[in-house]
Amino acid sequence: MAVTMPELLGKRDVIEDCRKHIKILNSDKYRVTAELVLTNGDRRIYRAKSINQDFAIREILTFVGAVEKATGGTVMWRLKGEKTYHLSTNYTLKPSILQRAKKAVLSYFFDIEE
Description:
Structural class: alpha+beta
Shape: flat
C-alpha cells in the first residue's frame, strides 16, 4: 500500500480525511452500478458513467441491448441494492413531471384511452 508524505511524517492529510467523510455521508451520490446475468450463468458488473439514476438506467439499457445483440441471448439485470431482476430491455422509466402534468391536463379536458 502506498504511503503519502504526510502519513510518513506523521501529519494527517485534511483533504483526504474530508473526502473519506463525504464519501461515507453521500454514498448515494456515486455512479450507478448494475449486475448483469448472462444466459450461461456468468455475472458481470457494469458501472454507468452517470450518477443520475434516470440517465444511468438509459445507459444500462443501451449496454444490455448491445450485449444481447452480441451474444444472441437474453440478459437479466438489476441495479445495485435492488432485489428484483429485469429481463432484457423491457423496462419502463417513470414519466417525468412534465409528462405527468401534461397527461393530467389532457385527461381532465378529454377522454384519453390507454
